[in-house]
Amino acid sequence: MSWQDVLLSIGQFVFAAALLPSVFGKDKPALFTSLTTGIVLGVFAFTYLTLQLWSASIFAAVVGVLWLILAFQKYFGKEKSANNNHLIADIPQRALIENDGKFLLVQEFNGQWQLPGGRLNVGEKLEDGLKREIKEELGIDIEVGIPLSSFVFTGKSGINHFTVIYQCDFPDKKQEIILDKNENMDYRWVAVEELNSMNTYTEHKEAILSFFKKRE
Questions:
Q1: Cα–Cα dist 216/212, whole Å
Q2: Mapped to the 3 state alphabet, what secondary structure does 26-58 carry?
Q3: How confident is the model over 19-66, as pLDDT tens digits?
Q4: What whole-number distance in Å separates Cα of residue 113 and Cα of residue 109?
Q5: Contacts 24+ apart (CB under 8 A), 133-136
């Protein structure tokens, strides 16, 4: 082994050791820098090989591979970061059912009052999902109208919920409400004037007040 081979090998070894924190850490060099340096070092490795600088050629190839790994990590790290900015959420739907100037609320087991409804199932159409939930909770059939409002909140479990509130009609007034006690503890037809005195969610309250204000 020539002295040139030894000297170049030591330099490449130090270079490789200096790159390891970047390979295993969070901070990555720019994609263009990593990719270009990796390619150039590949050329160096081939050049050393033609000069029979075997050790230097191997170390240059190793360092080149490390730079290409950094380029790979940078590219897919950016892609993952972009995907993380997209909202991933389930879709609860709520029905504002109005009847003779009053609207229907259900009471959760924690005492909170809210508009009836529930989560959309996979593969289910929006309208069908809300109709199903109301049928399960209250035993009545409704007609789903236009969306009134939507909002996003994160539950205690860390899951995002994209909630949509719809105006819904209660066409057959002869239907008897049969509350599913496994879903809610009570239900009530409420006048707008009573709303402020009830313990309900702010987003639900705002949607209800906005709906009745537009009808004035």
A1: 7
A2: CCCCCHHHHHHHHHHHHHHHHHHHHCCCHHHHH
A3: 888 888 877 888 888 888 888 888 988 888 888 888 888 988 988 888
A4: 9
A5: 133/93, 133/95, 134/95, 134/97, 134/168, 136/180, 136/183
pLDDT in tens, 108-136: 999 999 999 999 998 999 999 999 999 99
Using only the alpha carbons of the chain, give its radius of gyration.
Answer: 32
Which tokens go with 16? 């490789």
Q: How many CB atoms lie within 10 A of CB 140?
A: 18
Per the listing, tokens 């790994």 go with 69
Residue 195's alpha-carbon distances to 70, 79, 192, 209, in angstroms, are 58, 46, 5, 9
- Distance spanning both ends of the chain, measured CA to CA: 94
Mean pLDDT to the nearest integer, 130-156: 93
pLDDT, tens digit (0-9, with 9 covering 90-100), for 63-94: 888 888 888 887 777 555 545 566 677 899 99
Quote the tokens at residue 170: 């209660």
